[in-house]
Design a protein that fits this description.
By secondary structure, this protein is of the alpha/beta class. It has helices spanning 35-38, 40-53, 69-80, 136-147, 164-172, 184-191, and strands spanning 20-21, 31-32, 61-65, 83-89, 97-103, 109-115, 124-128, 131-132, 151-157, 159-160, 175-177. It is 28% helix and 23% strand. The longest helix has 14 residues, at 40-53.
């Protein structure tokens, strides 16, 4: 199959334009990246870019954070030929678990669980979530991995906003995001409004027949 990444409209990080604005009010996140996943070209290009930037980061397993981190994490695990570990909201796993409490992006306190045991000591874990805003959810996942004596080798997301806690995560871990630091996209994510919202059309993300 011919490589179409550099042809037509599929320019660098073009798929970020498909992310949709929040239409349901303040209790929800300010945008929804899932339109990227339904478009086969967008999803493939997203994975390509993330995997390229992950080439120097080793892992034995990819852990995805409940819930949308499952989509991105499972896809990356399959491409990296490693296993996938779900880290879930409390009360969802039917096995023994370890649990942590954390404060999410909305300011609510939540509990998150990981199966016990999940891996052998020293396992290298790549943590994946869809979006990192305050860093609270990711911080809880890091705690769970470390309690079982795993090593967090990197963090992955579509974007990480420049909040104080998220910035500390960048200082401590290799972080790979589709929205790269020091770009227009990063500035707009920090402001929680994308200029692409002004021309957003849901049908632009529809898969082709």
């Amino acid at each position: 199959m011919a490589n179409t990444r550099d042809k037509g409209p599929r320019h660098d990080r073009w798929y970020l334009n498909l992310m949709s604005p929040n239409t349901k009010g303040p209790k929800f996140a300010w945008l929804d990246p899932t339109s990227i996943y339904i478009n086969q070209n967008a999803f493939q290009d997203l994975l390509h870019d993330l995997l390229t930037d992950l080439e120097s980061i080793e892992c034995d397993v990819v852990a995805g954070l409940d819930a949308m981190g499952f989509v991105l994490g499972a896809a990356l695990a399959a491409r990296r030929d490693v296993g996938f570990l779900p880290i879930r909201k409390a009360g969802k796993l039917c096995v023994d678990t370890d649990k942590v409490s954390f404060t999410n992006y909305s300011g609510r306190t939540q509990d998150m669980e990981m199966r016990l045991p999940a891996f052998v000591e020293g396992t290298r874990v790549l943590l994946v979530d869809q979006w990192i805003e305050t860093g609270g959810t990711m911080g809880g996942a890091i705690d769970l991995v470390r309690r079982q004596k795993g090593t967090v080798t990197g963090l992955v997301a579509i974007a990480m906003e420049d909040t104080p806690r998220a910035s500390k995560l960048r200082e401590e871990f290799p972080v790979v995001t589709a929205v790269q630091p020091n770009t227009k996209w990063q500035d707009e994510c920090n402001a929680q409004f994308l200029t692409s919202f002004n021309s957003y059309r849901a049908e632009d993300a529809f898969p082709t027949a």
